[in-house]
Amino acid sequence: MASCIMAYIMISLEETETRSLVKAKNWAILLENDQLLFEFSRGRHFEGWQEGSITFSPTYKYHPNSDQYYIGALMVAGAKRNARQHGTCTCFALKKTRCDRILWHGKGLKQVQYETCNYRLSDHRPVRAVFHAECDVSEGTQK
What we know:
This is Inositol polyphosphate-related phosphatase domain-containing protein. Keywords: Hydrolase. It comes from Eleusine coracana subsp. coracana. It holds the Pfam family Exo_endo_phos2. GO terms for molecular function: inositol-polyphosphate 5-phosphatase activity; phosphatidylinositol-3,4,5-trisphosphate 5-phosphatase activity; phosphatidylinositol-4,5-bisphosphate 5-phosphatase activity. By secondary structure, the chain is an alpha+beta fold. It has a single domain, classed as Deoxyribonuclease I, Chain A (4-Layer Sandwich), CATH 3.60.10.10. Strands 1-4 form a two-stranded antiparallel ribbon. The chain starts with a strand and ends in a 10-residue tail after the last strand.
């Protein structure tokens, strides 16, 4: 069995729409705009890899040690330079991402659980998966 734990940007929506959907807990529309699922459906990447059904809320970005999503903006380095030179401020909004994903690949695997963990130690919520695995056991070769 091979597994992959990765970070992948989720949302292809505008920031204001993303914020509204998160506040409304409308996970279905967020998933319809999920970039990783889009890549899977087009067969562009991760051939042979699978991901279980996502039934949990986005796992990033929270205020640390809380259940409140962080809804803010991030000023990138180039914008900071521009702001200093021209007296303006250009902010790039943070999009909500479902950063924590588990992909798997292999025969005889059945994912039976895929969920987020309720740890509040950082701005992420980790995810976990449980699998049933079938193994082919042979005693050796016959002559």
